Amino acid sequence: MAAEQKQKLEQQLWNIANTLRGKMDADDFRDYILGFIFYKYLSTKMDLYANTILQPDGLSFQEVEGHQEETALLEEIKQLALDKLGYFLLPSELFSELARRGNAGGKNNFILGDLAKVLTHIEQSTMGSESEDDFGNLFSDLDLTSHKLGKSESDKNELIVKVLVHLDEIDFDLENTDSDVLGDAYEYLIGQFASGAGKKAGEFYTPQQVSSILAQLVTVGKDKLKSVYDPTCGSGSLLLRVAKEVKDVSAFYGQEMNPTTYNLCRMNMIMHDVHYKRFDIKNEDTLERPQHRDLRFEAIVANPPFSANWSASPLHMTDERFSAYGKLAPSSKADFAFVQHMVHQLDDNGTMAIVLPHGVLFRGGAEGHIRQYLIKEKNYLDAVIGLPANIFYGTSIPTCILVLKKDRNKDAERSRSILFIDASQHFEKVKTQNVLRTQDIDKIIDTYKNRTEEDKYSHIATIGRDAMHRVSHSVSHSASIAENDYNLNIPRYVDTFEEEDAIDLTAITTELRALATQAKTTDATIAGFCTELGIETPF
């Protein structure tokens, strides 16, 4: 039933989003529709919680306003709600009440002013409480005065009321605590906006197929995690995906530079019923101003912007994240700067998995130096996984996943080698996008877990130059990492060359003779027709 309910909810939400489509850019109506869904979610949670508190008194939350003990009851509910939910709403501020007032009597009544006050009050209700940072400026992208909603105040109000009334008709089924249908539907919408709006909207969203691979890689052999961290967390889909792979995650940490996407991430956490005390998401530039510098995490996942610019300031050479390497990533390609940052934040028993462009595997200069240091001096690199091209929104370039661990030396055999997987040819083409199927994902994870070799798919390459330490000779590409000068380009280790079928010269000669005979017969027929018509032959 959950799958059917989720599909129905997704369709309803997308239909509502289409109410706004055409009036504004995808990025803009994304902010409105997701913001209003979040407002309804907070209202429904508030109403359910308040009714639970008031049950012994035989009252509903709506009945409190006007009650002789209204002030005392609301104050008690507020204090309990701030601790439990992290915010507080009055009965008159609930989503359903605003939708009712906006559509009372079957006509559009002006509620824009009241709605703006309610959204502001949600944030104000948390001031001075433990949840203040988690709810501050959450609705800053919902500009109810924007001309994009309509030319006149009446036009704006009519559109907003229409959206609120449609949303009010949807039952989010929040009383079912085992269900995460709404959170998944919310993430579905984020994905839809990303796939439909090109690169700009796709920057903050990692396709679920890739999220699944990263999440499974960092949770191998574990059913609980103390912490998970994403230094470029976007809308939070990767962090939440990791939580689905284990029974429990004690704490979620993330950092996101874009303020709008940062708001989406916090909303996404709350919508997936992650308590505000269990997540710590910061809005800052991770490389320039890291916000969790002193913490170490058991699992780290990331899909950073590919080959982004960063300062590469010489001042960073005194930063413990970078100083040991003796080199900084180029200012035009921050890929390895993110790797270095994540390695610094990784706990000794942790695993990290990061998606990067293929260039990180073979580019020289400072990047080659950093790559060699990670392998030769630290021995952190555990696996290199090549993905198909064109699986990310907004870019068709092929990508790879690097998996790094700090405790590789516990396994003597593993510590001397790196696993290479070439999954670049294992996908299904859906319209203009390449998609990893369930069997493709399972094959990657099974190969990583079991550290198996398969001709033309995976190979275990030794790190050192000593041939005695080679793990396997089953693939012709058996040179060690050192012998390849720490170049990790996958074709150097996984031989994907396909021999062409042998040509049968005798059969081809016979075929050519038959064609020559057929040509003579055809020529004779044409010559006969030409004679009958009294014209010259064309040959």
Percent of residues in beta strands: 5-15%
User: Strand count, sense and closure of the main sheet?
Assistant: 9 strands, mixed
Strand order of the largest sheet: 5-4-2-6-7-9-8-10-13
Percent helix, as a range, is 40-55%
Low-confidence stretches: 197-202, 467-476
Order of helices and strands: HHHHHHHHHHEEHEEHEEHEHEEHEEEHEH
How widely separated are the two ends? 75 Å
Q: Averaging pLDDT over every residue, what do you get?
A: 89
Structural class determined from secondary elements: alpha/beta
Number of helices: 17
Number of DSSP strand runs = 13
Radius of gyration: 30 Å
Q: What shape does the CA trace take?
A: globular
Overview of the molecule:
Strands 5-4-2-6-7-9-8-10-13 form a 9-stranded mixed sheet. A two-stranded parallel ribbon has the order 1-3. The protein is built from 17 helices and 13 strands. 40% of the residues are buried. It is of the alpha/beta class. The protein has helices at residues 2-20, 26-54, 70-84, 95-102, 112-124, 132-135, 153-168, 181-196, 198-202, 208-218, 237-244, 259-271, 335-345, 365-377, 412-415, 438-450, 505-533, and strands at 224-225, 228-230, 248-249, 252-256, 279-283, 297-302, 346-357, 381-386, 399-405, 417-422, 428-430, 433-435, 458-462. Mean pLDDT is 89; it is low at 197-202 and 467-476.
